[in-house]
Amino acid sequence: EKSGYAHFMLKEIHEQTRSLQKTFAGKLSELEGNVQLPELKLTDEQIRNIGRVEMIACGTSWNAGLFGKYLLEGLAGIHTDVSAASEFRYRDPVMDCNTLTIAITQSGETADTLAAIRNVAQYESSTIAITNVVGSTITREADNVVYTHAGPEIGVAATKTFTAQLIALYLLAVHLGRRRNYLLPDEAKAIIKNLKELPGNVQQVLNQRDIIRKYAARYAANRDYYFIGRGLNYPAALEAALKLKEISYIHAEGYAAGELKHGPLALLENGTPVVAIVTKGRTYEKMLSNIKEVKARGAEVIAVADAGDREIGKYADIVIPVPVTNPLLSPVLSSVALQLFAYYTALEKGCEIDKPRNLAKSVTVE
Ligand code: F6R
Fold it and tell me: Which of 129, 52, 117, 114 is CA-nearest to residue 363?
């Protein structure tokens, strides 16, 4: 059932051209600049009154949650916090009836996430679950369910379900932003247009697989990797580092690039690979400065950058190009490129990619 692919993970990475489309199918109205989410049962008043969002998730889904924070703040004007479910459960969170809780869980069965959402019930506030599995336990615990429709994921490392979560969060952020009159119709139209182009863009990233494989093999003997990004590329960097750790057993860290000089720079040695996600956007110039800083310490910089960026070649040792799109959406493309990078690194090292040691697909014990 791997349809000719060597591993489920590789198959699932390739399925993203279709799975992303399934996440947004039937929900976009480009003409009006609106996203339809009939599955949300929130009234206009409830949406207007949202004071804060609390995202609850674990692992890759937590990285998606951080991504969602940037989107909900930027597109819907809603203050958002992101909590690891295992921390939220044992904290004293400050919540009230206007706090909207969003639990993100691919499997819908993660013990900590389920326990956390059960704790939220006491606040009599609204809850939304974002999940991939129809009828999973979380769907019975939350008042609203947004399905990611990515199809079953067999590889232990989350790939297509992660990008589907990102798309679900775009849908939610645009929907809430429009209903709160925070996001202008024209801004929403632009995002919707670019969302529709995303599956085609993903195909272009997949077409780079041979180059990505070559680069991955070149660095695979390294002991430590660093992944850096700013803004939405920061959660993408965290997720890329997690993917590499999980399947290749290489030590990898993701950082907000501006944080490097506050400690992690001390770790860099001659030849340490630093993967910089440096697509065009608000912090592009700042990223170039960060790349200069790491180059000055002898790091090897692998840049994920917009195709056609002429400047980046002067700074980075190698460049993995991704198609140019809305800066809000490019992290999806960078994530696909870096899923391939993690996959080919693990392949080079001969790891058991679909079933990494010590890990389970769904963590039903705390
Ligand atoms: C990473 C991975 C895990 C899960 C985490 C949460 O590739 O698969 O980090 O993301 O265990 O799982 P869900 O999303 O099912 O709650």
Answer: 114
Query: Scanning the structure block, which residue is given the tokens 């195709």?
Result: 307
Q: Cα separation of 63 and 72, whole Å? A: 14
Q: Rounded distance, CA 250 to CA 243, Å?
A: 10
Distance CA 53, CA 56 (A): 10
Residues 265 and 272: their CA atoms lie apart, in Å, by 11
* Rounded distance from Cα 60 to ligand 1 centre (Å): 5
Q: Facing residues of 82 across strands?
A: 55
Distance CA 212, CA 232 (A): 22
Q: Which two tokens stand for residue 11?
A: 């198959």
Q: Mean pLDDT, consecutive 10-residue segments, the chain of 366 residues? A: 93 97 97 96 97 98 98 98 97 96 98 97 96 97 98 94 98 98 97 97 98 97 97 98 96 97 93 98 97 96 97 97 96 98 96 86 80
Ligand 1 neighbour 337 (Cβ under 6 A): no
Reduce the DSSP state of residue 355 to 3 states and report it: coil
Q: 109 is written with which tokens?
A: 């069965």
pLDDT for position 361:
81
Full 3-state SS string of 191-246: HHHHHHHHHHHHHHHHCCHHHHHHHHHHHCCCCEEEEEECCCHHHHHHHHHHHHHH
Query: Would you tell me how many other CB atoms lie within 10 Å of the CB of residue 300?
Result: 19
- The answer to whether the pTM exceeds 0.90 is yes
Rounded to the nearest angstrom, the distance between the alpha carbon of 65 and the centre of ligand 1 is 12
Instruction: Identify whether 196 is a catalytic site residue.
Output: no
Residue nearest to atom 7 of ligand 1 (CA): 157
Look up residue 350 and give its two tokens: 């001969």
